[in-house]
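Two quick folds needed for the group meeting slides. Do the first one here.
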Amino acid sequence: MARAMAELLESREQLLATFFFSRSDPSRNHIKSIIATLAYNITLSVPDSRPLIAATIERDPHIFHRPFVCQLKKLVFEPLQQLSLQGVSCPTVVIIDGLDECLNHDERKILLRAISIATAQYSAPLKFVITSRPEVSIARIFNATPVNEVCTQHSLDNEPDSIRDMPYFTISTNCSRSVTCDLRCSLGQVFIADKVVQIWQLFQRAGEDSGVLDCFGRNCGRDL
């Protein structure tokens, strides 16, 4: 589903960057490579960001060994905020898929806390979509500070033959409206396309302001 959404957003020139966790891939089952991946994606999506990100790395060659939140601020939020202040138009959506496939539970918390902290501190027009199976440990992170301070939760109703147990979370510093979406589709080729469109419509309504972190939890196969 996240890949289908990424393709949809890319076709609309709204996709900034992606990262896909994979439990079986030792290069993608932790958070150590996320910032480098996102920063590289950003330079491809927004060429004007290249000199800013390159300058940050040149000033601090050890930046990728700094605390995760520091990397996120310096290589993602600060360059995009600077470009925004200069009037440069940029895609706004970052997709991080399969949080539950990050093997280190502490790293899951570090990731979500860092995004929440940076979102609250910067005015960069960024929206994060994060997918995950609804594990108890991940739900606890959303219910804890600082994530819960900018978190609004939404339930997605479903039928037995659609995606089961899919909680929907919106994290935003500015979001002023709560949205509930009823997704009643059967599995199949049309199901994927329709659901991605409906989820994206919900995402747009819930995240009209900048600084949105959305999380979809699901109990379904990763191939969706």
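Then this one, please, same format:
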Amino acid sequence: MANFNGKLTIEVSFENLNVPVGFGMTDAIIYHNCSEQIYVKSPWTKLSRSTKRNNFKINILKKEVNWD
């Protein structure tokens, strides 16, 4: 087991995401959907692979990870 430190920069882009407006939760819904799509891409996800949406693209922009 090793201790890791670092920073990972992930870009999530999406098209045609239907979100209700005016309830004060628009940002939260967008953040949740983006986070969920990142998690679905993980090999250890506990979510069904059927929740992966084709209108989302996930890119790892920068990876700065070191171990002690």
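Slide caption for protein two: Residues 26-41 form the longest helix (16 residues).
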